Amino acid sequence: MNSFRSFSEIEEFVTGSGIRKTIALAGAHDSYALDSVIHARKKGLIEAVLIGHAGEIRRLLEERGEREADYRLIDCQGNAEASETAVRLVRSGEADMPMKGLLHTSDFMRPILNKETGLLPPGNLLSQVTLVEDQKEQKLFQITDCAINIAPNLEQKRKMIENAVGLAGCLGVRLPKVAVVSALEEVNPKIPSTVHYFYHTHNERRRNFHRR
Predict the structure, then answer these.
(1) Cβ neighbour number for residue 136 with a 10 Å cutoff
(2) Model's pTM, two decimal places?
(3) Which domains does the chain have, with CATH numbers?
(4) Cα gap 181→172, rounded to integer Å
(5) Given CA atoms 158, 160, 164, 166 in this order, what sign does their dihedral have?
(6) Nearest alpha-carbon partner for 105 in 129, 83, 128
(7) Residues in contact with 153: Cβ distance below 8 Å, sequence separation at least 6, in sequence order
(8) pLDDT (tens digit, 9 = 90+) per residue, 48-72?
């Protein structure tokens, strides 16, 4: 598989392969999140389980000309219950991924990170990746982590890079280039990120990052 260079190439690959994942949208009584799900479903990319205030979800679907029968609705009045339901559906195989709708991030993340019933394998680190399309250079690149791990230590940064390298592999990039960003280009013991930068750029080049 060649590496993807744009979001349109990813979409063409998914639609052409017949892959159709199921999203469990927690807090689906949110117009913006619901619009995204409807858009993806119309393109043949996903099926959806809509979890939240059922009456409000039905109203939003009707306003958009959508048939309730095309979706699975689960009525949950509380944020915690909606998030827990989404995670449970993923664990049971009834859905492939959870999606956040109208609820607090903390409520959404808590069941995902639950050590006994969550989605994160033991020893792994959950990290956020922003995938960006550079239309001028005609390529995709990643930025990590600008949402979840606020002040990661050296080991956490290593796992964040491993996660990003794993995603790059899924996108067809055989040997991704990693740039470690810090405030300075020279090592300053008073700025931990520069020490981490030195470690990653000098020590890690001696071994390959683990690809998932």
Answers:
(1) 5
(2) 0.85
(3) 17-113 (3.40.50.10950), 130-206 (no CATH)
(4) 24
(5) positive
(6) 83
(7) none
(8) 999 999 999 999 999 999 999 999 9
* Residue type present at position 77: Q
Residue 190 CB partners (closer than 8 Å, separation 6+): none
Longest dimension (CA), the chain: 60
| pLDDT score at 132 | 97
- 166 contacts 188 by C-beta, under 8 angstroms: no
Q: Can you tell me the distance from the alpha carbon of 204 to that of 88, in angstroms, rounded to the nearest whole number?
A: 37
In this predicted model, what pLDDT tens digit does every residue of 28-47 receive, in sequence order?
Answer: 999 999 999 999 999 999 99
User: Which of 138, 137, 99, 100 is CA-nearest to residue 9?
Assistant: 138
The single-letter code of the amino acid at 5 is R
